[in-house]
């Protein structure tokens, strides 16, 4: 089974936000040395918890600091942008890291409604998403636009012998249907829904798939996991993520707290939600988390899992990926 990484440049209490960006680049270098398959970064706007706002810029920094690992967006929120401009950006990225670029796209705003309107004031922009995906693929791969299209005869530069691999991202059946229709690789955001709807979306994708960008269905799942040297330490570290998830239920957003500051009094409803999180959480020693990940991959019949890990301490995050790399016998670069 292949193992990959998703990082979101999470803001942490007591640490400057720009440090989160530099930590993401350092983590990419670390995960390449450990033998991970891909390193993806996300796009969020106006959210005090996540400061990764420009994946295409962060990918460029990762590209020039790595040499083997695939680098991708998870993803570019396409309704905010011109597909032509996105194609140009990713063609430049492919020039920096030939044959290593994944262009993951999604329809979600990655922000609240007001922020989304600042990015694109057209309230119907998401309705154009399927058309945008078609145009983006054509410009990325160098296909000609159809007769009558305003972009016919225009190329996204620079051109080269390789091209970014387009991926569809989603956390519902919509993205799965579109990925199947276009014959694209598909990635389900398990960490957003805590797995709800994941099996159904994957089944929908496989059922509707017809050859297009790729010949056979190919899917992976992005899952939250945290490993430490002891189970006790892993659950201690998990307190930071747990507090953030519980607070989010009542509209409270903020940077990640250190574990020792994350505890607070919970209402009965909050505690019930918290216990549900813990039952589903992939937290423990390296061996325990690896067993849970393997079971999930087998249940969902996916050949690759993309692991996302939040910790207040960057060293604990790096250690988690080290432990999983060892359990999965990844080949160090």
From TrEMBL:
It comes from the Bacteria. Residues 5-298 form the Luciferase-like domain. GO terms for cellular component: cytosol. One of its GO terms (molecular function) is oxidoreductase activity, acting on paired donors, with incorporation or reduction of molecular oxygen. Signal peptide: none annotated. Gene3D superfamilies: Luciferase-like domain. To bacterial alkanal monooxygenase alpha and beta chains. This is Luciferase-like monooxygenase.
């Amino acid at each position: 089974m292949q193992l990959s990484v998703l990082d979101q440049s999470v803001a942490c209490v007591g640490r400057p936000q720009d440090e989160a960006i530099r930590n993401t680049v350092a983590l990419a270098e670390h995960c390449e040395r450990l033998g991970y398959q891909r390193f993806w970064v996300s796009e969020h706007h106006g959210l005090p918890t996540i400061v990764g706002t420009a994946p295409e810029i962060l990918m460029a920094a990762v590209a020039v600091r790595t040499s083997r690992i695939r680098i991708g967006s998870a993803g570019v929120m396409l309704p905010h942008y011109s597909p032509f401009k996105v194609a140009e950006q990713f063609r430049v990225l492919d020039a920096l890291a030939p044959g290593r670029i994944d262009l993951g796209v999604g329809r979600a705003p990655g922000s609240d409604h007001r922020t989304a309107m600042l990015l694109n004031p057209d309230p119907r922009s998401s309705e154009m998403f399927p058309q945008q995906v078609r145009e983006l693929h054509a410009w990325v791969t160098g296909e000609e636009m159809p007769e009558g299209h305003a972009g016919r005869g225009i190329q996204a530069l620079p051109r080269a012998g390789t091209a970014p691999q387009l991926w569809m991202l989603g956390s519902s059946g919509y993205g799965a249907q579109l990925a199947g229709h276009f014959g694209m690789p598909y990635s389900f955001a398990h960490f957003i829904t805590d797995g709800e709807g994941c099996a159904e979306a994957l089944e929908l994708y496989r059922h509707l798939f017809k050859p297009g960008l790729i010949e056979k269905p190919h899917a992976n799942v992005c899952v939250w996991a945290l490993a430490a040297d002891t189970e006790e330490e892993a659950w201690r570290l998990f307190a930071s993520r747990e507090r953030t998830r519980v607070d989010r239920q009542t509209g409270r957003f903020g940077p990640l707290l250190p574990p020792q500051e994350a505890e607070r009094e919970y209402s009965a409803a909050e505690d019930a939600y918290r216990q549900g999180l813990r039952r589903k959480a992939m937290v423990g020693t390296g061996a325990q988390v690896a067993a849970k990940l393997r079971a999930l991959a087998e249940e969902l019949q996916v050949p690759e899992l993309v692991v996302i890990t939040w910790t207040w301490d960057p060293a604990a995050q790096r250690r988690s990926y080290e432990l999983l790399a060892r359990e999965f016998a990844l080949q160090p670069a």
